[in-house]
Amino acid sequence: RRYWPEKCRFHLGLTLLYSGRQREALCEFDALLAVPENLPKDMQDQLLWNKAVAHLQLGENVQAARYFADTWLHRRFADTPAHLLPLLHMTMALAKAADSGRAVEKQLAEISRQIQRTNWEVEEVRQRVEVFANRVDAVVSRLRPLWRLARPVAACLLALARTGRSGYRWLRHGARTGVRGIRAAIGLPAVQTDFPLMPSLETPFGELLAGHVIEQTFSCTQDGLAALALKLGTFHRQLHSSLHLSVCDAAGRCLREVQTSTCRFRDNHLHYLTFPPLAESQGKTFTLRLTSPDATVGNAVTVWARPGTGRGLCLNGRPRKQELVFKPLYLSPSSGQRDLLLICPDHLGRIRIGIGMRHWEIARALTARGVSVTLATPHPFDADLRGDGFPLVHVGSTETLLDLAIRHRNVMIQGDILVRFPALYDSNLPIVVDMITPMHIENFDRPPAEYEYSQQLLAEALRRGDFFVCGNERQRLHWLGMLAGLGRLPFQAKAEHPELRHLIDLVPFGIPDAPAVKTRPVLKGVRPGIGPDDFVLTWFGGIWDWLDPLPIVRAIGAAWKHEPCIKLFFSAYRQPNGAVSNMAQRVHDLTEKLGLLDRCVFFNEYPVPFDERADYLLETDAGILCQARNLETQMSARTRVLDYLWADCPLLINDGDEWAQSIRQHGLGIVVEENREELWMEAILRLCHDKEGRARMRANIGRLKQQLRWSVCVEPLVQFLARQHAARPGARLAA
User: Fold this and answer.
1) What is the dihedral of CA 314, 320, 325, 326, to 10 degrees?
2) What pLDDT sits at residue 353?
3) How far, in Å, CA of 616 to CA of 603, rounded?
4) Residue 409, SS3?
5) Torsion angle defined by CA atoms of residues 442, 444, 447 and 453, in that order, rounded to the nearest 10 degrees
6) CA atoms of 367 and 385, how far apart (whole Å)
7) What's the pLDDT at 33?
8) How many CA within 13 A on the CB side of residue 694?
9) Partners of 431 in the β-ladder
10) Cβ neighbours of residue 709 under 8 Å, at least 6 residues apart?
11) DSSP states of 147-175 as a string?
């Protein structure tokens, strides 16, 4: 979490670099390198490397050599071929600068590619590098203007090729001398290069192609082996092959098997492959076997290893003096696995609005349906807060989340959870993504950086999710279009699932199964200025910037002059954190300007506690909502409409969203066609005078409420969980 803004900017630079926009990528890299103290060391290394690559692609070869030299200094060397890359690329940049060095450039580039794809034997590398070093030396002898620049590089390569492990000190001295010469030639200050070599440094093992088998033996220190975290690379490519992992016992019997697609893999990350726990694993030796039956060159993952003495790693049956970069994860056999981990990005407490309220109610409804659910949040909550039949957990770190995630068979997320916890993206756990909020559309009027960040969040979620839920049919069609653009529509399933509801379905906002019950008077006859017989219109929920209550305030002021009993109550002027939105401030200022404050328009300072909302709604004669006529309104799924219906409140709403159509169709209230003050005033007066009409609306609401209950709304989630549990060997959905 500490470096996620810098990581986002770094990956933006990578995207620009590999899409041919090198100049823009260099701007991003320079901005990050301007404050190196804010960056982890591995990111500094990657920044220097990719900056050199950008200069190389632009034909700026001297600058490329300079930054390859910086990369070489920044890295910690081991006597392994993978760490020849900075030297080889630096030499390639120098060869590009010389017209007569074309042949050297071609051969160096070929060597560079082969180093990335294969794990050469050390002796073979020395021989090839010596040949190229001699050729570079010959070229340099004819290039007098570049003599001072290229000669130290050739000396380094010759030293590397001719020196074995016994000559380590001399090699390090040659490397320092060569790089100091380069820096002096191009006018850079001297840099301290005394660093220890790390013989256990991680290196790419090579592409795992079809027909190849990688095996690694290991011993377990605990019972309940439930996952293996493997470091895998993609060379920053979009892969489409499959990866098969088998866990076998000492006799070679396959105990667990995982098959997953590499299309979601990210370059050089730990990827978490989970499976049903092995109860008695402590002290036993197992073999993990990796294959990729459909992988080809350029469409295969690369496996990372640590060089060293032989530690049980075999490639196609041949022992290697390396071990895979991996770690086992354990699940206590006594704890068992639960059905669903629901990670809510919002705060949870006595005041619950929006997503926090939604996920709490989903957890409660699923628990009532027999699903074992854990509700988690990255935000701290009061120690005395308890879940309603489900555990409530705070996850403050990636380690805590992973330990919690492998104890569940499925995970449900929303918002920025995948960015907060990228290890979750790199796992093979089935992930449900709650797409109830089209953040990119909500951020149309925000600064460009916020809009682009919301697009990034949604793209990550759409690429990673296994199942998606949203609030209405308009949203579902919108998300289907975005999934189609990402190539996520399953063509093979169209016959069995013609509407693709096995991929994305509706889990709208719902209402509690229990009826609303009043516990105490809160408005009529209690709030100064609101009488016991007044006609109260309630704006329940926040006054957000994408809503438009200004015409309502003006209409209330005009209607109040005709009927002094008409009152408007805003349930929350401030947000739960105390902030005031721009629209809330504008509404408050307009109310004061018109002289309506605390006469016919009233504001509650903070949101109503979740358990007290029935007291306010049951004293409401009609719920009111005014939305701007824009794309956000058309895509919205308003929570407050369900609150009004739960308390049998007739609705007064303007046209534009899907709820307006339902209100008009089922006779649940009045829909104002245009957002004009006189039309709102007419609708308010008509609803105030028509008591029989309000009674009919309440009766219609009562007939519709059954299908709006949370226990009904979560049915698609129950079906998805049942499908997932049936597909996993030995798994069973809780009764």
Assistant:
1) 30
2) 80
3) 13
4) strand
5) 60
6) 18
7) 81
8) 20
9) 411
10) 510, 511, 512, 513
11) HHHHHHHHHHHHHHHH--GGGHHHHHHHH
CA distances from 595 to 598, 599, 710 (A): 9, 8, 42
The strand pair at 318-320 and 225-233 is best described as: unpaired
Please enumerate in sequence order all residues whose Cβ is within 8 A of that of 144, keeping only pairs 6 or more positions apart, or say none: none
φ/ψ of 200, rounded to 5, equals -100, 15
For the packed helices 61-74 and 41-57, what is the interaxial angle rounded to 10 degrees? 160
Per-residue pLDDT band for 426 (boundaries 50, 70, 90) equals confident
CA separation (Å) from 260 to 145, 243, 274, 318? 55, 5, 11, 26
Q: What is the pLDDT of residue 94?
A: 55
Say how far apart CA 719 and CA 712 lie, in whole Å.
12
How sure is the predictor about 14, in pLDDT bands with cuts at 50, 70 and 90?
A: confident
Distance CA 366, CA 358 (A): 12
Please report the sign of the dihedral spanned by the C-alpha atoms of residue 557, residue 561, residue 562, residue 565: positive
Q: 219 pLDDT exceeds 70?
A: yes
Helices 147-162 and 122-142: angle between axes, nearest 10 degrees: 160
363-405: pLDDT as tens digits? 999 999 999 999 999 999 888 888 989 999 999 888 888 888 9
pTM: 0.65
pLDDT exceeds cutoff 60 at 160: no
Q: What percent of the chain has pLDDT over 90?
A: 38
Tokens 């206590």 belong to 332
Residue 149: other Cβ atoms inside 10 A: 20
**Quick check: 629 and 656 in contact, CB under 8 A?**
yes
For residue 666, the one-letter residue type is: H
DSSP labels for 347-391?
Answer: --SSS--HHHHHHHHHHHHHHHTT--EEEEESS---TT---SSS-
How far the first Cα of the chain sits from its last, in Å, is 38
Structure tokens that stand for 682 in this block: 């007419």
Q: What is the residue type of 284?
A: K
Least Cα distance to 232 among 201, 252, 249, 208 occurs for 208
